[in-house]
Every structure is written in structure tokens, then in C-alpha cells.
Specification:
Layout lengths: L5 E5 L3 H12 L7 E6 L5 H5 L7 E3 L2 H6 L4 E4 L3 H13 L3 E4 L10 H12 L3 E2 L7
Parallel strand pairs: 1-2, 1-4, 2-3, 4-5, 5-6
Helix pairs in contact: 4-5
């Protein structure tokens, strides 16, 4: 039996919902598991009702880390990168930044790559555009 990748999301707007739907629709013994979704304070109840019972919905990065994901996918915008990326990487969790424009803030890319290197995590910035 293969180990299934535990994935967490930051955000549950249009992009987060689409990523969650894709993860939940994946089939097979090696399909990733949607372990947790980090949402703004006060939104957990609403979001939990849209997700399977086994998916944790949390309102802070400590709750996200407690779900033990191997990968966190940021789906919530540049402010979410500024708020949560450092803590995720410092915890040794791989982070995929969808809002790559956040990496252009002065010093942010250097800060995050340094944290990733120190913790053994990967900072992933996918290339592409939506048309």
C-alpha cells in the first residue's frame, strides 16, 4: 500500500473550492487526501458543511500544522502568503504559492527560501496563467 499525500489548503474561495473538488474527486490508492482547509475566523462552520467529515477546517496556522499535511497549497491571495507562508515553511511543510505575485514583495522570496532551506521544506511557485 502506498502512502497517500496529505494536502491542506489556505483559503476556500473560488480557487480553493476548485482545488478541493479536484482532490476529493481523485481516486485510487495513491490519490492525495484533503487533510485540512485554513479559513478566516468565523467561517469554519460554513466551510465544514461543504466538505467531508474527515477534513479539518481550521482558523489558524497551528490548526493547519496539527492536521499534519505534507503539502499546503495557498489559494487565498497575496495577503495570505504574507500572513501564513513563513509559519508553514518554518514547520518543515512544503508550500505551493498560487499567488506568486506575493513573492515580489521586497525581501519576501529571500525570507521564504531561507526558511524552506533551513527546515527542509520546498517552496513551490507554479508557472502559468489563466486565460
Amino acid at each position: 500500500m502506498t502512502k497517500r499525500e496529505r494536502v491542506a489548503l489556505i483559503g476556500f474561495g473560488a480557487i480553493g473550492r476548485a482545488v478541493a473538488d479536484g482532490l476529493l474527486a481523485a481516486a485510487g490508492d495513491d490519490a492525495p487526501v484533503l487533510a485540512a482547509v485554513l479559513v478566516r475566523p468565523g467561517r469554519a462552520g460554513t466551510v465544514q458543511s461543504a466538505l467531508p467529515a474527515g477534513t479539518a477546517v481550521v482558523e489558524d496556522v497551528d490548526g493547519l500544522r496539527a492536521a499534519a499535511p505534507g503539502l499546503v497549497v495557498e489559494c487565498a491571495g497575496q495577503a495570505a502568503v504574507a500572513e501564513h507562508a513563513a509559519a508553514v515553511l518554518a514547520a518543515g511543510i512544503d508550500l505551493m504559492v498560487i499567488s506568486t505575485g506575493a513573492l515580489a514583495a521586497p525581501g519576501r522570496l529571500e525570507q521564504l527560501t531561507g526558511l524552506a532551506e533551513a527546515s527542509g521544506a520546498q517552496l513551490i511557485a507554479p508557472a502559468g496563467a489563466i486565460s
